[in-house]
Design goal:
By secondary structure, the protein is mainly alpha-helical. The chain is 76% helix and 0% strand. The longest helix is centred in the N-terminal third of the chain and has 24 residues. The radius of gyration is 14 Å and the shape is globular. The model has no long low-confidence stretch (mean pLDDT 91).
Amino acid sequence: MSVEDWLSREVRKITQFLMNLLSKATEITTSNKEESVTIITNKLEEELGISLEEVCNMDKMLLITTLKRRNFGLQHIELLGDVLAELYFKNATLQNIYQKANELYAYVQSNATTYSIELNQKIERLNNK
């Protein structure tokens, strides 16, 4: 198997993983919030080896370095920001979740080669809650 095939498979795997987390975060209601946050935390620990709480409290550059070591590209970092932002909008009681989502979005915005109106809208939505 070529390196390119392996890398493509890894990118798809990470994308699917993050989309599943985002879906779970989107489905949160008042009655299932605690259970959903626990599921998201467990899945993050299984896949990345770090909990949701650790993600929220980790230094920005250490988190970015950790994600890059696990083959996260900018689109994956943005998706993780989407998961954190969705948890913030659902009032998940996690310290620094707003700040971490904002930091991930800002990192993507400053490192992307093209301007993204969609990302800018996500940042504005997050800052206007």
